[in-house]
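Hi R.,

Here's the chain you asked about this morning:
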Amino acid sequence: MKALLDTHAVLWAMTQPTLLGGAARTLLLDDSTEVLLSTVVAWELSIKHHAGKLPEAAPLLAGFPTVIASLVATVVPIGLSHAVLAGGLDWAHRDPVDRMLAAQAISQGAALISRDAVFDTLPGLRRLW
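And here is the predicted structure, written out as tokens:
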């Protein structure tokens, strides 16, 4: 199974794994799971950290390659096809980071690991927590 991680899932996996939902923990511990990490996660962590909202993200941002290695993740860069899909999703949710994560999960054929139920309103996207 492929699993793309939402920003809070990455943060909690690295700092407070007990906050992850049962399905998320199980998938991350399963060696057969292909863990995907979007570059948009690093961007969102950086924005929120520099705005003072996520001071606990500092060590992750200082050593993001270590985060990738710890999660045994494959980085998914933002591509043109992701940008077009994210902008064209028939979904009332307007948050650009969430739209990008949804588009990447859909295009990669991955479940999105997120506690955010707003993703459940998007047809074609599978959310696990």
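One quick note: The chain has seven helices and five strands.

Cheers,
M.
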